[in-house]
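Bumping with the actual sequence this time:
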Amino acid sequence: MEKTLKPMSGYLTLVICLVLFVAAVYFFISGVDQSVTFVVLAMLCFLLSCFFLKGLMIIQPNHSRVLNFFGKYVGTVKDNGLFFINPLYSSQKMSLRSENLQGQTLKVNDKMGNPIEIAVVMVWKVGDTYKAAFDVERYSDFVRMQSEAAVRHLAMSFPYDNLEDDHAPITLREGGDKINSILEQELTDRLSKAGIVIQEARISHLAYASEIAGAMLQRQQATAIVAARTKIVEGAVGMVDLALKKLSEENIVELDDERKAAMVSNLMVVLCGEKAATPILNAGTLYN
């Protein structure tokens, strides 16, 4: 598990390193003509200065350092600034900033077996530095591969639309926020083992594959035409029924079944026709 460390400030150590370096220069210059002891002291001060300098580290905002001591995890430093740690520690830089991942467009089959093209964009960041550093190999590659697997699984779990599955509760095209929520949960489950936090995930591209796009477009157009015609007929039937009831209730004209049938036929032609009806004057009667 991740452990957060609070190391000591590195400003005092920096001053000590500068003093040791100046002392090393002074002893070296003094010892060239006088004594070997000064040369030894100069080398000692210089080595100590280098040793302490190795323990200094600068951490930028939204960055961290994962520390190890001869293969043993010591902790993670997440504070910003100049710090001093054990010079024998090894450190690994790790960014804590949010990153965008624009997935490539994948060609997969939806739940009904239709080939579709789908791509997602996601925002993620490192939440657990221990898991990101030690539980997976190159966590950025792990994020890329697992996000692709999650998108494929999502596409295969739902139909593209409800043309073939009228009872589908959720479709990829009309799912909206619910589909995005399912995608975020899928990504969270897959990437939590690497300490990755998913902040947002959205479908950025969704379409039928090129080989069936034309056929599916014609099918959608036909479905839309049928739906529109159904609405028109339902409205026309209601208007005809209302007209007959009004004529009967207000005793405007008495119609037998044959005249009613003719009137219904004429009204349906007028109301359901694509073009304006052409009136025809009948100088006789319905029976002549």
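The tokens above came from a reply further down the thread. The chain has three domains: 10-93, 99-210, 213-272.
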